[in-house]
DNA sequence: GTGAATGTTCATTTTGAATTGAACTGGCAA
DNA sequence: TTGCCAGTTCAATTCAAAATGAACATTCAC
């Protein structure tokens, strides 16, 4: 059930807002993040004024829970800036729209952890292969493990290149 | 319900097979592909003999439907080679384990389509913005659209760099 | 302090993607 | 021709991730 303002109405999204949201919902889905994160970022991206959590809840018709969790994710990625206004309790958010920190945040939060868990798993495979004694079989498995290690190495090396290229 | 051999048994996976599968299930999940695709590739990757669809069904305990669909995906990515043996109807598969074509296949099948649909959406946003008349508002939206176009451009440009770096 | 406003957490529900499995297709063999 | 084998398709089911919303903090205002 969509959340409504106290008067029971809800400001409809403009076409521009809807199109921006559509772009980022798709974008974050590709990156493996939930759609609500894309909705929030997409709306902030075309907002001239910063928005509060309650603004997001009302305009997007999502739950407070989703908005809170989505904002947490965006903060961890460095994709939103938090604006503390003196004398006002509510915190406001705006989109951080510079590519470099976005790419950096994504690599740090999403890519590196996966790479690392992959490396752990390859090491475990390596050990299982070391227990193999038949030399013919062993040669084949060694080649496979070596290949995986090579892929991992390239994965690690490509990240700084990506950052350099996409940053600024 | 897992598929069984006619005698009701099923060859258990070796530790090496299980570890390889675990690596690739994770790997393909990150890329947004279903886990069964990772299971199939993971098993093929450490198989010294090519395997048939029925072999995969039996060893992995997945349905014929999953195996068929998974193999189709892997073929489209160029991640498996099909071996036609003369006089034998069954077709056999082996893992294509060279990084370059894998990266190329992934970019062609998964990345480019998303990039293109993104570009279409940005164009639609552009048009909506063009209908905006208030000059102050217009300036802000123009800057946002320009930024998106810049991101798309970089996305397109980074692909060949990735390919060059990961290929060979 | 107390109450109201803001935001978080998490058990439950919902939703959509993955998987199943039965029906089907196409081709080969006898 | 008939029957069988290998593989595909797709409607129905299952399952995991996302979203909800009510209960729970926290903090500010008075």
UniProtKB/TrEMBL annotation, chains A, B:
Q: Which UniProt keywords apply?
A: DNA-binding, Transcription, Transcription regulation
Q: State the source organism's domain of life.
A: Bacteria
Q: Which residues form the HTH marR-type domain?
A: 32-90
Concerning InterPro entries, the annotation shows: HTH-GbsR_regulator (IPR052362), HTH_MarR-typ (IPR000835), MJ1563 (IPR026282), WH-like_DNA-bd_sf (IPR036388), WH_DNA-bd_sf (IPR036390)
Family of this protein: Belongs to the GbsR family.
- What name goes with this protein? HTH-type transcriptional regulator
Species whose genome carries this gene: Haloferula sargassicola
